[in-house]
Design the sequence.
């Protein structure tokens, strides 16, 4: 077996694992890896900030289902990656981050940019490891991908000391390949018990979490729901697991990203089958209200997720796809397919009577009107990315999704600035797909330098900015304190001029201030983005004090008249 540079072996592992794009910034302590990457067929995209690189790798991973890769040098490059690692861990996204490091002998001497990044990253990674010997390189890289994919997916960090990178190892790529990832089904006993609970329930619901999408189980979910005629709800991370135009779609329950009729349907249910859902607090709200009067079956690939938030009536460990398939097999064995019943009809009634308005013609523009135009203009194959703030909550409440991996959102960590680099990663993975980043003005400014990357590499996507010139979510949270403190973002005549800002990057942009102009601007941006092969911004100026319908429990967001809504369409 030939001896080759160990970083060349590492790059061959990346290629065999299906990596076609990496996002990073070269530096002195990572140059041996870059020397090996230079002769690879893998595309390198030079980002402007390492956090942006992690989010781009995150977007690439979410939309492909494969492991995303980002690279940085030593010291602050690694610490800049921590937010992206936390985001990936929170949302079960498999990424591998590579960091350069000072030589091993210098680590204890406070060498330039030498920091113990493994210990810093360990709490936000599935595995953080430092390469100690050149001979370990191919095997550590191979295991990194295996760990990232296995069980509940998540991030891995590999720290690469400079002297180790310069070493050689024995490696033959023809003798190596990806390690198998176990996709295990639950035991038949709890599956049988779960089916009995569903068959005896009068008003059952299936709650599809992000695990259904990660597990590629959307077809199995739909088959089970249709066979038993059980309405299906999705969590925010599960949007796209079940088509929202399906007769059995039962909306979303939650205290922020929710549909009013979804909350009502959940509160009327008596049994909930939750698959790949972690019962996040923005979904459940007050647990007493959430749990009262209903039994729970919790299916998850990670055993420690079961019982973490509350103890279910039945827990079941298994991968979403074989778990749902097994439930369907047992349901078929128990009896014929069920016809649509009163419960499905009741969900339809709630949908018809408790929907929110989105047809506002007001100036300034009301945010629901923006999402009405987005829904009407973009097709079902469009991929949306959105981050955190009032615009994310409005997006969750109003945007419709029909296919998996088409609605990407940083759910638990919620880092501002995620949308632009994530959209860039999505477009790199699917160049022929329309990609739209829905962002707030404040979030856009966090990592807006990544627009320069998309412009340099001709990565086209559309940014729809919902601009209220406020820290809108914080302003709304301050209302009970009777204060409006430190949230105003505007200065001069109109705050940051994002149109001029985009022009400075060499990218087109347009500002919209009237609702009738939104659709035309979306059409222009979509066409112009693909024509010029650039990111294009549509900045929609919305009313400054618009609030989202939110509460502390599910019943707080169902008990008010659906039409007409108050001027600010607030639930309270």
Sequence:
């Amino acid at each position: 077996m030939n001896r080759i540079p160990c970083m060349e072996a590492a790059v061959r592992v990346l290629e065999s694992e299906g990596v076609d794009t990496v996002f990073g910034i070269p530096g002195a302590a990572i140059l041996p890896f870059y020397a090996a990457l230079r002769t690879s067929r893998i595309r390198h995209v030079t980002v402007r900030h390492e956090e942006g690189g992690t989010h781009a790798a995150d977007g690439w991973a979410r939309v492909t289902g494969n492991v995303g890769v980002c690279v940085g040098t030593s010291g602050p490059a690694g610490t800049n990656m921590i937010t992206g690692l936390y985001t990936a861990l929170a949302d079960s996204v498999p990424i591998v981050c590579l960091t350069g490091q000072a030589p091993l002998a210098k680590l204890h001497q406070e060498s330039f940019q030498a920091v113990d990044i493994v210990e810093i990253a360990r709490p936000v990674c599935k595995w953080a490891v430092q390469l100690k010997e050149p001979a370990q390189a191919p095997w550590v890289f191979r295991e990194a991908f295996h760990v990232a994919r296995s069980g509940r997916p998540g991030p891995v960090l590999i720290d690469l000391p400079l002297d180790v990178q310069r070493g050689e190892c024995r490696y033959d790529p023809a003798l190596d390949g990806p390690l198998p990832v176990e996709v295990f089904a639950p035991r038949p006993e709890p599956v049988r018990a779960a089916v009995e609970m569903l068959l005896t329930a009068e008003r059952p619901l299936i709650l599809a979490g992000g695990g259904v999408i990660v597990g590629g189980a959307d077809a199995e979910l739909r088959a089970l729901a249709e066979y038993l005629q059980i309405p299906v709800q999705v969590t925010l991370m599960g949007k796209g697991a079940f088509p929202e135009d399906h007769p059995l779609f039962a909306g979303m329950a939650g205290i922020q990203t929710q549909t009013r009729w979804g909350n009502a349907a959940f509160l009327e249910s008596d049994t909930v089958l939750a698959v790949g859902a972690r019962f996040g607090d923005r979904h459940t709200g007050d647990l007493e209200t959430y749990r009262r009067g209903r039994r729970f079956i919790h299916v998850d690939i990670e055993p420690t997720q079961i019982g973490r938030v509350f103890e279910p009536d039945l827990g079941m460990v298994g991968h979403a796809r074989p778990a749902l398939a097994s439930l369907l097999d047992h349901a078929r064995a128990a009896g014929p397919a069920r016809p649509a019943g009163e419960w499905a009809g009741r969900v339809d009634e709630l949908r018809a009577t408790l929907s929110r308005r989105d047809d506002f013609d007001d100036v300034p523009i009301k945010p629901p009107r923006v999402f009405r135009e987005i829904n009407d203009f973009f097709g079902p194959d469009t991929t949306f990315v959105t981050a955190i703030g009032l615009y994310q909550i409005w997006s969750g409440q109003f945007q419709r999704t029909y296919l998996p991996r088409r609605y990407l959102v940083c759910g638990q960590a919620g880092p501002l600035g995620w949308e632009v680099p994530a959209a860039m990663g999505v477009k790199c993975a699917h160049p022929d797909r329309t990609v739209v980043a829905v962002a707030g003005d404040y979030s856009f400014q966090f990592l807006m330098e990544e627009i320069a990357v998309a412009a340099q590499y001709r990565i086209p996507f559309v940014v729809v900015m919902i601009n209220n010139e406020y820290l809108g979510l914080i302003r709304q949270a301050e209302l009970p304190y009777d204060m409006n403190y430190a949230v105003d973002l505007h200065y001069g005549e109109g705050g940051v001029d994002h149109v001029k800002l985009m022009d400075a990057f060499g990218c087109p942009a347009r500002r919209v201030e009237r609702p009738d102009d939104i659709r035309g601007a979306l059409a222009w941006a979509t066409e112009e983005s693909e024509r010029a092969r650039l990111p294009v911004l549509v900045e929609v100026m919305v009313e400054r004090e618009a609030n989202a319908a939110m509460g502390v429990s599910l019943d707080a967001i169902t008990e008010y008249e659906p039409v007409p809504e108050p001027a600010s369409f607030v639930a309270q």
Summary: Residues 437 and 463 are 5 Å apart (CA to CA). Residues 50-64 form the longest helix (15 residues). The mean pLDDT is 90.
